[in-house]
Every structure is written in C-alpha cells, then in structure tokens.
Design brief:
- The protein is built from one helix and ten strands; from the N terminus they run H-E-E-E-E-E-E-E-E-E-E.
- It has about 230 residues and is mostly beta strands.
- Strands 1-2-3-5-6-7-8-10 form an eight-stranded antiparallel barrel.
- The relative contact order is 0.24.
Length: about 230
C-alpha cells in the first residue's frame, strides 16, 4: 500500500495543471525509490551440483540516487538516454539459524549460521522511448542495464566463512510518466523491475553459495532540464 501511495502521489504531481514546457534537452536530477529486493539463496556444501539448502528472503528499503539524461524530441515521440547512480549501500539484512552438525565418530557440534550482504556502487544505463500524451507530459518505457558490486558475508559451522565481493549485473524494464513545468523543472514517476544475474561465492573448503536477486521499485524523480 505504501508503494502504491508513493506512485499515485507522483501521478498527481505529474498531472497538476501548470505552464507547459518542451520535454527535450539535457537534464540532471535526483530520485527517491521505494524498493523490494528478493534474494533467493542456494547452498551446495561440496560443490557437486546438488543443492543442499535453499532460502528466499525479502528486504524493503528506500534509497536515493542522482541521474543525468538527454532527451531528443520529435513532434510526438521522443527518446531519452541516461545514467542513474546510487551513492549509497543497500543492505541485505542479516539472517541467522541454529544448526547441529554430526562429525566424525558420531561427534556433534552446535552453533549459529548467519548470512548477510550489501549492494554498492550501483549504476544503471537506460533508454526511455516516450510519447507525448499532453503538450508537456510524456508516457515512456524503460530498458536499462544495471551494474553493481555485491559483498556477501556468511559464518557457518559446516564450512569456512565467506567475505567476498562479486560483480552484479542485471536488466531493468519499466514504465513511467514525466511532466515538465514552465521553468524547466520536471517530475517523473515510474515503476520498474530489475532482474540480476545470479552470483556465486565459493569457500576454501569447497562449499558453493549462490544468490539470485530481483528488485521491484517505485520511484519519484525531480530534475531540471536545459
């Protein structure tokens, strides 16, 4: 419900009756997005291709970003090329579980396994083809390439600990609406989904952990075009 209210608020701002202005040119701005990050984890304790454990977790967070873009306009159709950068980390909250491991000669040990992570240095290159539904209002789609670094950490009684950085890449698709005010200020409201490629971490004793991330985002952007 919170995300729906955020999106509808953006639509209200977009359709507010104000002086019209052309939608083309260079632009810079800031965005605030409400995100739901789903992480599907898998563990292969001996890296033989057999999955021994699975877990899916969801994290909700709000994050800010900065962007720069250029829009080339025709009479009704336009196309925007841009880049969006998040100068903050997004955390995958720490999860813990108690475990008892049966060792050699029937000996057992008990302890707590935990896993956590963070996504940092996230940027997205995007293209947004659009159509002017009003003199100053554009409806657009989004296709983008996302890149970031994911830091994965885990402790376990059955394998050596993990603390590794991996490259994270994904594809973003979405839809949005943009309205330009008379001063050149504009507001954008959009919905998007980013499907990231799975990343794997391997411990020194050959346990392989895989994380597959998918993000859903509702964003409001404010910018200035020149």
């Amino acid at each position: 419900m919170k995300k729906l209210i955020t999106f509808l608020t953006g639509l209200f701002l977009v359709f507010s009756p104000v002086t019209s202005y052309a939608a083309g040119g260079f632009a810079f701005g800031i965005s605030a997005s409400d995100n739901t990050l789903d992480t599907a984890g898998k563990e292969d304790t001996d890296n033989n291709g057999t999955i021994d454990a699975t877990k899916t977790v969801t994290d909700d967070f709000i994050v800010g970003s900065i962007f720069a873009e250029y829009t080339n306009m025709g009479d009704k159709f336009g196309i925007t090329l841009g880049v969006d950068y998040i100068p903050f980390d997004a955390d995958i909250d720490k999860r813990s579980i108690s475990q008892t491991s049966l060792g050699a000669a029937g000996a057992s040990s008990s302890g707590t396994n935990s896993v956590e992570g963070s996504v940092e240095d996230h940027y997205t290159l995007y293209i947004q083809p659009g159509y002017m539904i009003k003199p100053s209002t554009m409806l657009y789609g989004t296709l983008g390439f996302a890149s970031a670094t994911i830091n994965g950490k885990s402790t376990s009684i059955t394998h050596t600990n993990i603390n590794q950085d991996k490259d994270l890449e994904g594809t973003k698709i979405g839809v949005g609406i943009k309205h330009v005010y008379g001063s050149g200020l504009f507001v954008k409201a959009d919905y998007s989904q980013t499907d990231y490629d799975a990343v794997s971490f391997t411990t020194s004793n050959n346990t392989k952990a895989t994380a597959d991330l998918d993000n859903t985002s509702f964003a409001i952007s404010l910018g200035k075009q020149f």
